[in-house]
Amino acid sequence: MRYLTSYELIAINARIDIHQKQQPGLAKAEQLNRVIAIPQADFYENSLREAVSNKTGYLFASIVRGKPFVDNNYQTAIIAVAELANLNDYELTFTSQEMVDLAKKIDQTKNAELDYGQLFKLFNEHLKSN
């Protein structure tokens, strides 16, 4: 399985910031390290599809909740998970609005109330093999 590096996430965020005429910036370097580490942890998934759906879900929630960048964390999360799926020969079928709504919902949910099982199931439902 191919993962995104911290450099790739920073590049994604910087492109978004520059496009919006904002100064790119990292707000929490230690949080970015956690964002990178979580999807790479081995959770003993049964298949590549399961691994991709779980790890895209974790990556998405980690960026949205951890806010490692000064600006555009939602947009960075959306592009990052699409890229992670693509790197592993999958495509996410969420609409842009579904991704924004999901980011807002995750951001507003308290830590103990976030159901990762449901999140993984949702990402699995929106994962299409290339």
Automatic annotation (TrEMBL):
Name recorded for this polypeptide: Death-on-curing protein
Species the sequence originates in: Secundilactobacillus collinoides
